[in-house]
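Researcher:
Attend to token order:
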Amino acid sequence: MLRAIYEWCTDNGYTPYLAAKVDAQTRVPREFVENGEIVLNISFTATSGLKMDNDLIHFNARFGGVSREISVPVANVVAIYARENGQGMAFEVSTASLQDAAADKSAAETSKPGVAAPASSPTLTAVPSASEAESAASTKPGDDPEPPKKGGKPTLTRIK
């Protein structure tokens, strides 16, 4: 799914952004991490040598003019979306899957040579449609929801 959304963004002239949880297996510039997460521009012009494997997203990017090697486990990806309109896909990353990834890595380091450790995969959950969310929300009579803001920079809203 990550590759498909990345290609959709680039094919339509959008800038793909990747949001990820940061843990010990994530190699990113720590000074740009906020609340344990980082948002990365993964467009062709912002990266060099982008490689999206089944387990790892790896590339080089410049931060403040300094080239850095970036490595993000797929299990840590929170969302991939287009900067211009916020359309994309969000993934649920539980602490259990992060712990499983760390356990798999340590098991691989201590296992016999040539024997692969089981890989953990990210978990996906369904997000209710807007009409389902509206019907599920309880509103009191006379409560007017805040009208949507017009203009400005689009943002990604994660619904949990």
Remarks:
- Residues 2-111+120-127 form a domain with the SH3 type barrels. fold (CATH 2.30.30.220).
- Residues 75 and 122 are 5 Å apart (CA to CA).
- The chain is about 20% helix and 25% strand.
